[in-house]
Design goal:
This protein is mainly beta and 127 residues long. The protein is built from no helices and 11 strands. The strands form 2 sheets. Strands 2, 4, 5, 6, 9, 10 and 11 form a 7-stranded mixed sheet that branches. A 4-stranded antiparallel sheet has the order 1-3-8-7, with no helix packed on it.
Length: 127
Amino acid sequence: QVQLVESGGGLVQAGASLRLSCAASGGTFSRNTMGWFRRAPGKEREFVAAVKWSGSTTRYADSVKGRFTISRDNAKNTVYLQMNSLEPEDTAIYYCAADRRVQRAVVLATRTEYVYWGQGTQVTVSS
């Protein structure tokens, strides 16, 4: 089983950048596609970005394309989310998660396909 711990959240002004990290232990990190999701106040948890277990493919929500970049370092068992040009609408708790299936051929955005979750890190963007 994969244990995940997110870090890097904080309070920033609109236009600023943050980099979130998610450290994994146990399980099969290098063989799991990893995703970032977020939950804004009063809203459902939504997909943000994901990176294939091999690092060869990424996928983004339309709302963050061109501003956020997901990456991973399998040697460090860590996945990152670089967030640039932050907007107040990006305010949310950000969670990382691991795909339920190892070495899946495609990168999914479906929340229910991710079964291992971290505790989340708060990102607040002021206008």
